[in-house]
Write a structure and sequence with these properties.
Elements: H1 2-11, H2 13-17, H3 22-48, H4 57-61, H5 64-84, H6 86-89, H7 93-114, H8 117-122, H9 131-153
Helix pairs in contact: 1-5, 3-5, 3-9, 7-9
Length: 167
């Protein structure tokens, strides 16, 4: 924990994050990255599950790099959050579950691109995705929804503070 805080202080992240606009600005970027990620990857997952069958899966897949960019933005801003307040995150059960779900989503996407992706890429506009792709899409959606929920729950598991001015 001290190494993270030390890195944050030496790099200037800590000072920026604890300035008037630092935390809100980074949080806004974090939500923008999340919107890109869920908006593109979520749409692709929903198509593989059978929604909007008139749209070719291959066409929607072209949006996925935008989702990867959103994910990269979230990793960058997430590192800023964690390094500037490690005590708020490292021992937080919501944060730990969030990281686990991100790990599961990562393994899921690797398996998706290794096995069913070629058939998804070659499918016609009206075609159903293969069963393995549907399973991967369902896992992906569940993981990313869980990441969002856990991200919101982080604030509820913070260490207690004394809000009493005279205590």
């Amino acid at each position: 924990m001290d190494a993270l805080l030390d890195f944050s202080q030496k790099s200037g992240i800590y000072d920026f994050m604890h300035s008037t606009w630092g935390w809100p600005a980074v949080e806004t970027l974090h939500f923008m990255g999340l919107s890109l990620l869920i908006g593109t990857v979520g749409l692709f997952d929903l198509r593989m599950l059978g929604l909007a069958k008139g749209i070719p899966m291959n066409s929607l897949h072209r949006l996925v790099p935008w989702g990867v960019g959103g994910y990269a933005l979230n990793v960058m801003t997430g590192v800023m959050f964690v390094t500037s307040a490690p005590d708020q995150y490292l021992f937080n059960p919501a944060f730990q579950v969030k990281l686990a779900l991100m790990g599961i989503a990562g393994i899921n996407v690797l398996l998706f691109y290794r096995f069913p992706f070629d058939r998804v890429r070659r499918a016609d506009a009206e075609a159903d995705a293969p069963r393995a792709a549907k399973v991967a899409a369902a896992i992906s959606l569940c993981c990313w929804i869980g990441v969002i929920v856990c991200g919101r729950l982080i604030t509820y598991y913070r260490p207690p503070y004394h809000w009493c001015f005279w205590c």
